[in-house]
Write a structure and sequence with these properties.
The complex is a heterodimer. Chain A is an alpha/beta fold. Chain A is built from four helices and seven strands. The chains are: A alpha/beta, B alpha/beta.
């Protein structure tokens, strides 16, 4: 079932929308243990670091671009640009870790549960109804970026 | 929509050899999207990691996601 707090019009949209099923790809395999892995976060909360351009919330079909967020960024400094009104924004506003758990990932690195926090993390604006540019342009660019940073594991949080 | 956005990015990362695990608060939608690895949590849309300032809860979710990273029986929804 869909979350009970979801407005009715969204419940209808979610039932009738033609979802883009992910292309079946073979499983990637870790080349080192999780405790030694470099881990990056990917959020769709629309966070933007200070000085970076905000997402274009007027763009029809949704702004499919992404922003990078340095691993040592102060979470409180991020601003949020999200088109959707399908959820209560208060929890994320109170604690950005709710949608982009960078401080929690740092704690796991300190505890030895992962090898290290990746140098860069990715932020998308999740409300994209026409994902063509995401598929053709921005998702491949995101993969190239994380690949270049030697990322072993990406953890993705939808908002 | 956010789950579709994440699933499409996730698939591209996995294709390039990066091990990916996503979170979902809408498992019915995620079942249709079929990303490589997804962990279902009973959370509202606006707070996928758990309540604000609950560091222990957030870290527990991350640890559960990391525990799926070694799985190769994809697509999987746990």
């Amino acid at each position: 079932m869909f979350p009970a707090d979801l407005p009715l019009r969204y419940q209808f949209l979610l039932r009738t929308y033609r979802w883009r099923r992910a292309e079946a790809v073979p499983a990637a395999r870790l080349t080192r243990p999780v405790a030694e892995a470099r881990v990056a976060l990917v959020t769709s909360a629309g966070f933007v670091a200070p000085g970076d351009a905000p997402f274009d919330l007027e763009l029809k079909g949704g702004d499919a671009s992404f922003r990078t967020i340095a691993g040592d960024t102060a979470l409180d400094a991020l601003t949020m640009h999200h088109k959707s009104d399908a959820y209560d924004p208060a929890p994320i506003a109170a604690d950005h870790n709710v949608a982009f758990p960078l401080e929690r990932l740092r704690a796991l690195a300190d505890a030895g549960a992962i090898g290290e926090v990746a140098p860069r993390h990715l932020s998308f604006m999740g409300s994209i109804t026409r994902p063509e540019r995401l598929i053709e342009e921005f998702a491949p660019a995101a993969a190239t970026l994380l690949e270049g940073d030697g990322v072993d594991i990406a953890l993705l949080v939808p908002v | 929509m956010c789950h579709q956005t994440v699933s499409l990015v996730q698939t591209e990362l996995e294709r390039r050899g990066i091990v990916t695990v996503s979170l979902t608060v809408m498992p019915d939608v995620t079942r249709k999207l079929a990303p490589p690895r997804a962990l279902s949590v009973p959370a509202p849309l606006g707070a996928p990691m758990g309540p604000p300032h609950d560091a222990a809860a957030h870290e527990a979710v991350l640890r559960r996601m990391l525990a799926l990273a070694t799985r190769t029986d994809v697509p999987l929804l746990a």
